Structure formats: structure tokens, C-alpha cells
Protein 1
Amino acid sequence: MAEPDQPSTARMIDYWLGGAHHHPVDVAAAGAFENAYGPCAAIFRALRDFLGRAVRSIADAGVDGFLVFGAGVPTCGNVHEVAPDATVLYTDVDPATVRLGQRLLADSDRAGYGYGDATDIGTVDPAQLHRFVPGWGRRPVGVVFLGLAAFLDDDTLARTLDELYEAVAPGSFLAIDFDSEELAAYPDALAMMGPAFRMRAPARFAPLLGRWQPTADGIVPVAQWRPAGAPEPVPDAFYGALAVKPAG
Ligand SMILES: C[S@@+](CC[C@H](N)C(=O)[O-])C[C@H]1O[C@@H](n2cnc3c(N)ncnc32)[C@H](O)[C@@H]1O
């Protein structure tokens, strides 16, 4: 693969997670961000651990098909690795990330990667959807929506989540996170996130879930969502929730 000349958030996260699919340009961008904010590895590990706990809980409920939006790099404890009996379709809008994901999953018969704009379910290839998320619309599925809400305005996020609710079968789950107001105290780091970046307080995020019903765990800092032991001591940069479309 040619050396990229621009960093990608997906590969920066791979760097912070200790993965093997990033480049010097990503490491440089990650370092610049850490100079403006502080260490990030533990924060992204806590977010990925939340993904693991949420996906395992969905699988434990009997769901065996997942659709992942804004998936980034499909390694380091990602969905098909923590739900080994499930089939998984990863999607992203960034062409380089889609190509990388397709290369990494080329030998997998139960996880695939394709283009998909989270704000328009119609952009997901129907053939891939039916292969990797069989029974879409008829059987309960898990939708994973992490690292995305921060880049969608309130109206777009609410509309997108409502369209997903309409599309999935009753009994389906949504794993979602959003960025807290943590970066407000770090203006240089905040500026690096770009003009589309949105921080939200939990009370502002909750109504955007619309008809999706959060589980009793609530909308909490990701490290505090059903922690396996004592919650990891990281800044509350990301909040997360598991929500359901009730069965029947
Ligand atoms: C911050 S990264 C998160 C990656 C991964 N979900 C994680 O949590 O590690 C955001 C990803 O979302 C993708 N993205 C941005 N806007 C999107 C959209 N409208 N639909 C789908 N993916 C999008 C970006 O290309 C990027 O790979």
C-alpha cells in the first residue's frame, strides 16, 4: 500500500490501541493531539472495551448478526473478534479505510467490509448486507454506532437513528457513544477536531435516541458501563449506551 500523506482518525485509533495498521503520518497526528490534550491510549482502550462488553451482551441475548457504521480498522478487539459466532458487516465512508478493512478481512467468511454512509442506510450494498447480516429487517440484529455521533449535528443524528430504528426488526440493539464536553478545557485539541465536531452533555444526547430505549444501565461514561471490575480510571471523554427496539 502506498504511504498515505494524510492521517486518518481510524488509523490514529489503531495506533492508540497498539494495532499494526497505521503509518508515520498517523503517529505524527496522534502525537500532535496528545501534545494539546494529553495521553489518549487508555481512553481509546476504555472505549474499545465498552464495545467488547456491549457486543458480548448483544450476542448473549441471542443476536448473531451485526452491522457496524464508521467502523475504522476492524482489529484490536473489534466486533467479529469479541462475538466469534456472529457474522459482521463493517462499513465506513472513507475509501482508504474501506480498502484496508477489505484487505484485513479478505480471508474471513463471516466478516466483511464495505462502503456505507451511516446517515443513509441505502448506501450499504444490499448483497453484502444480506450475506453478513442475514435476515436484516426480519431478525434482531446489533447495530454498532461508535465514534460517529460527534460528527453529526443533532437533527442528522436524530433522523439517522430513527431511520435505523425503522429499518431493524424488533428485538434489535444499538450500541452508541458520543463525545462529552471533556475537550472544552483544551481549545488547541478541540480545534484539531474540525468544525463539524460536536460535544454533548448526556441530557442533550438522550432525546436524540428517539424511539430507541436505553437499557437500565443508562447513558454513562463508557468505563462505567457494566464494568468487569473497578471501572478503568480514565477521563470521561466518551459516554455510551446500549439501546433496544423492544420486541413485540
Ligand atoms: C473516530 S473514527 C471511529 C472508528 C471506530 N468506530 C472506533 O470507535 O474506533 C470515525 C470513523 O467514522 C467514519 N465516518 C465519518 N463519517 C461517517 C459517516 N457519515 N458514515 C460512516 N462512517 C463515517 C470515518 O471515516 C472514521 O473511520
Protein 2
Amino acid sequence: MPVFSRVSKVRLLTCDERLQALFNEVIRERDCMIVCGFRNEVEQNKAFEMGFSRKRWPEGAHNRLPSLAVDVLPAPYKWDDIEAFKEFGAFVKGVAFEKRLIKGLKWGGDWEAFRDWPHWEVEPQVPLTPLPLRFASTFDTIGLRPIGVGA
Ligand SMILES: [Zn+2]
């Protein structure tokens, strides 16, 4: 069973928990490396200038902490191996579907205007701002839904 390198693990820990759950499943069957999770201002603007990203800090999905995006390179770690990216992309989607890990997962490989093969992204979880204090007691702090509603 493949495992993440130490540096891949550290990078994945900067990502949204949903991306962590997904790629911790993926690595059980497919060898891959986490190239990038969170990107700070210097890293983001460098990625923009080098043409790897179309966004400047702090507009990118990699610029939130935890990061809403992760870049993953499948084995055998060749950036120009488009077939490997396509095959890996289909596999990751299959895992996401099968494990019901992520609703609305987006893959940069599907973006026709700008194919971003290693890029996986999730929507922000709501709410993003703290609740007004007067509402706080009626919401649980984990699921952020009214207590007693849903499961
Ligand atoms: Zn990315």
C-alpha cells in the first residue's frame, strides 16, 4: 500500500479536512505526492508570475487556511504525462463518489480554458464568519446547524 512522504503529509495538513479525507483514501491505492496545499503571499504571486496560477494573492483557493485547494501529482511524477493525470483524475473522482466524501468537488483537469491537471478544489464551508453571539447557543459548534435539526 503506498503512503505519503513526510513532506506530502505536512502539505496535506494545510488543506481543508474534506481534501485530507479524500486523499488519505486515494493514497491507499494510488501512489501520488502532494505538491502544494496552502500558498502564502510570496508563493502565490510567484506561481502567478510563472504562469502556474491565474490568480494573485489572496484570490486563489490555495490562499485560505485551511486551503480549499490541493495540487497532487500522480506517480510516476511526470508533469508532462497528461494520460497519467487523466487516469488519476478519474480514479480520484471514483473514490470521492464511492466514499461520499465530497459533494461539488472540482478538478482543474476539467477546466477547458485553463487545464490545471494537478488541482483539486472544494467549495468553502459555511458559515465563514462567526455567528452573532445571540445566535451562538442555538447552534452546535461542530456542524454549525441548529441543535436538534438533521443529522
Ligand atoms: Zn492548485
